[in-house]
Amino acid sequence: MSGATGKSAVFFSALALLCIAKKRWNNNKGRRQQRRSAHGEHHDISQRGESLLTPTLPYIMDYLKCLQDHCDPYTNPRGHIPLCMSENKLIIELLGVRLLQIETASRAFSDSSVYCYNNTLGLPGAREALAYFLVKHFLFPERRNMTFGDALSYIHPELVCFGAGASSLISHLALCLGERGDAVLIPAPYYAAFDVDLKIIAGCIAIPVYCSADPSRGPSPRDLEEAALAAEAQGMRVRMLLITNPCNPIGTIYPPEVMKEAIKWARSRDMHTICDELYGLSTFDGPFESILRTLENELGDNVHHIWALSKDFGASGFRMGTLYTQNEKLLKSLANLNIFSGVSNPMQMMIAEIFLDDNWVYDFLHQAREKIRYSYELCTKMLDEMVIPYFPAKAGIFVYADFSSLLPEHTAEGEAKFASLLLDAARIIMTPGAAQHDQKPGMFRICYCFVSPELLTMAMHRLDNIVVKIRTRRIHWDHLTSGSMSDVIA
Fold first, then answer.
1. What crossing angle do the helices spanning 256-268 and 221-233 adopt, rounded to 10°?
2. Which of 36, 361, 406, 415 would give a disulfide with 441, using CB separation of 3.0 to 4.6 Å?
3. Whole-structure pTM over 0.85, yes or no?
């Protein structure tokens, strides 16, 4: 056979094989389509995967829109200003300078243990540092001279652990303490993502508890009982109580007696209580008493303390939450779960060093509180000038304000229209009350630490322009558009 003839034979053989493969593909394609028609619509992912497509926060897309055109006083003064995200960007530089010290980073990576598997709940040294930190700043904040050894006699390091953020730990607690379909009571209004945190993996249902009196003081046992009975009437088992103190979004501090009565009520029903104290060190007006102090460190098996670096240390990107519980069986369960959501060893080493640096921590928290206070007073001063009511805050990094008098109608739809107007005309976004399960339309959370005081001032001026236009009725609500209000942004 000549070379040309051999090449032709190979070519036609390959062509024949290609035709056969294509025919088989078309036949199989027809069979696949028949199977899809027989079994309904084909899904690229599972039904569980489909359930995860809903955004964790109802306003997250508007927030991402703001980030694409972020306002800069000098290069983009007409850009968007997000005031809906509870992050303290005012203190990032303070923390960054400390972490960038050469010896801090060097120690975090020079220890060979950080490169290897270890206890999923945290490195032994890091858990010791965490226990020390919790004693010094939550259990006995007045005892600044307490030694390391004395501190660990109050909180044993094996009863604390790290997780990839407070949300991860709350999700894990719901999974370990409840069953799918169980109810978790939460005083309303509350952090918008709790619904997803509890449901997405554990399958638990968040049930708002509405306070019959002042929501800034927290729920009474009667409020809790009414919410529990309503949930039970729907066939749910009420398994947990989740309380954020200081309160997000109101910014108030629940009195110790309110917390004690709430836990007493929960214990009478054989329920677990999760105490979220993420803003416990971001106080600027009056003392905060941790549940560790209120209960005299007698948590038992049914009270669990959550904290994280995300708020008080302005480091939400570190994904570093902490849990203190005296329920040892729970910790054993979490040790298995945490293989999916542990904190990296080098990060633990770096933060452990911070926790043990008393002088730096006290100075850092002092400066952080001063920055929070300054922005809070700037924000509330301008709200006062607009005659917009708000809850006087004592902690946190937000203010909860009442814009109900400006709504076109006192409904959830009216609140949504006002929020859309703010985004389109003023290019600002605040956290809507509906997302936080507030029954009163028109409540909004203003996260004043997310931006610099300069940007905050610009945002409040834009908000003031909107308020003036609506109140003077120069333009009817039906005609309020970004075009008709083009002069809102100076």
1. 40
2. 415
3. yes
